Amino acid sequence: MALTLRNSGRSADSHADRVLEVVRGGYQEHSDDVVTLSWIRCLNQYNLRPDKPRDPAVMGRVLLEERRARHAAVLECARYEMTTLYQQLADTEMAVLLTDTDGVILHMVSSPEFAAEVGPLGLRAGGVWSETEAGTNGMGTCIAAASPVCVRREDHFYTQFTQLTCSAVPVCDPSGNVVAALDVTSRSSLMQQHLLVLLAMTARMIENRLIDHQFRSAHPLHFHSRPEFVYTLHEGKLAVDDDGRILAANRSALFQLGLESMDEIRSRRIEDLFQTSLQDMLQRSASSSFHPVVTYRTNAASRFFAVARRPAAAADALCLPSSAVSASPSAGASLAISRSRARPPVKRAPAIGCVFEDPRLVAQMEIARRVIARGTPVLLCGETGSGKEVFARSLHEGSPQASGAFVAINCASLPEALIESELFGYCAGAFTGAQRSGRRGKIQQADGGTLFLDEIADMPLELQSRLLRVLDERRVTPLGTEESHAVDFQLISASHRHLPTLVRDGRFREDLYYRLAGVEVQLPPLRERSDKLELIRGMLATEGGPDAILSAEAERMLMAHSWPGNVRQLGHVLRTAAALADGAPITRVHLPALAVNLHAGHEGEHAASMTGERAGVVAATPPCSPPGALHGEHHDDAHSSAKLNPIQTNERQLLLQMLEQHRWNVSNVAKALDISRNTLYRKIHKLQIEVSHPEQGA
Ligand SMILES: Nc1ncnc2c1ncn2[C@@H]1O[C@H](COP(=O)(O)OP(=O)(O)OP(=O)(O)O)[C@@H](O)[C@H]1O
């Protein structure tokens, strides 16, 4: 009943009246609705009045820094995960926030524009969002209720926050106590269920990192009832001392062992839980190259797959290169290592003949450069031959690790059995046929540089979990040895297949997908690139030699072709044409493969784009413009977006795409984006989009 009234827009004149009516109307007695309970606390316990809003409370710099120092461990473990979450959500009108248990914002990730908009509300570092200060809100209510919450617009206690929607989850320390709230606050109230799942996953990653961070001198023990879940976010994780006593456990460990709280597991021995000892587990794990080994629950038939390892601190002392040791004296070494080596980005000209002038590509490159410099992995998607590897090399060359190696591995071209040793390397005598001296794997070769995993969709499932672990821990363990090595590399992966579909079909790990796709770059197929002419001319010089000349007719044919094989096919055609012309200008007779297509005209274009769709290509690049006025819009688009910054250019493309999808009906687009028409018009104006199309059905 309270819930119905709370959500009703008709039964009270204003938001504040509605809050008062729900709380005082006697609906609260049997309510277990988290928001109603929070309203009751605000009014009855904290004496807040929804009709008397307070000025936002914001902590001064000195006090904030003191707090940050006190919460240094959780902050260090959360920063990277928060940035990754922000990039995955890819919404400029939202912020990812972390508060301590007093509701003080310790860290916030958002666009500068959104930060400027919400700063006056107190949504910034130092802002105090406890329920006692800010009434019902995502962060404060999550802490008060010690559970995940979603506080949509009118769920807020104070009217001034009803433009925002917040979802938040608690983050626990290795003792199981709530130490922080992780929150996403945005203008949109859509997809909150989905968001809560992502937030919970991010909180689990932070909690797992906290265990590693706090118990570096303990043996980590990873386990799950299914072997493929070991080394993933779903694994049970224990920290065990030299005597086999359990010091800490993550939530999954408690759940799988059927225990309720940390108190039930702390100080128990491995033998109390499993039919094995720590020493036995360490030995068997080492001889299986750290693939999970079978063990059973003590006094029960439940079977688990587990791996035990030496403490990270001991392994560091043995394996870290001296530069890394001296650069990271703190306990958080594995996190500090990658930052300690950061070098300023090296600006290099792209390789000769490498053309990237399409504004979308330029914007994508700019974004990719920025994130890879901060250690975030980049996933390149695009049709075969669209230039993913060329893009990856170019990205590496302009990155802080450009002086390191660019190490590429094609997961589709290696036999499954070889990928593992190629990636992780092996020590002397690891298996029959291994080189006597052992071999450094590609991951170690990429240390200090960039690892490029091409056709990542073809990586076998078992290896996906090992790769995930390397990415989480930034350490690699070659086959046949127990010693792990700290590694610091930039990761770029690529696929022409639609990874979310493979995830849905259970053929690709979801957690690895999210790990790889820190930022997802969609490379447009050649037929959609606005720099096609520059590419043709640039590639003619590399493929045909400096003397190769194109006749106007040949250039027209090349421009009109639909290029199902993309840039690679263009290269072949130009090479063949230059050889056939033998120094004379290239004409129609030197392009026999294209002659048919010229007459086929638009049919060819359409067929090609359909082929792309059938092959499961993600439609994140704008579809080919429909004929007529909209076509003109796209040409204009390329021209005017040159004045925008890369993020705005990207935003503009997305908005154009939506406007086209909704046949330029601004009202429908505003509805789909869950913003007002005025806000949308302001955006359209800011992003220099000309709306010459009359609204249809508005
Ligand atoms: N921007 C570019 N400028 C010049 N040449 C390019 C460009 N992009 C791609 N090429 C050429 O096109 C060919 C294919 O490029 P690349 O191997 O990067 O494509 P890919 O998308 O990685 O292909 P696959 O999906 O088959 O791995 C290469 O020979 C490369 O030289």
From TrEMBL:
Coiled coil segments of this chain: none
Domain annotation Sigma-54 factor interaction: ranges: 354-579
InterPro entries assigned to the protein according to its UniProt record, in alphabetical order: AAA+_ATPase, AAA_lid_NorR, GAF, GAF-like_dom_sf, Homeodomain-like_sf, HTH_Fis, P-loop_NTPase, Sigma_54_int
SMART domains (alphabetical): AAA
Record Gene3D superfamilies: 1.10.8.60, 3.30.450.40, Homeodomain-like, P-loop containing nucleotide triphosphate hydrolases
UniProt KW keywords: ATP-binding, DNA-binding, Nucleotide-binding, Transcription, Transcription regulation
Protein origin, superkingdom: Bacteria
Record's protein name: Sigma-54-dependent Fis family transcriptional regulator
Organism the protein comes from: Variovorax humicola
Phylogenetic lineage: Bacteria, Pseudomonadati, Pseudomonadota, Betaproteobacteria, Burkholderiales
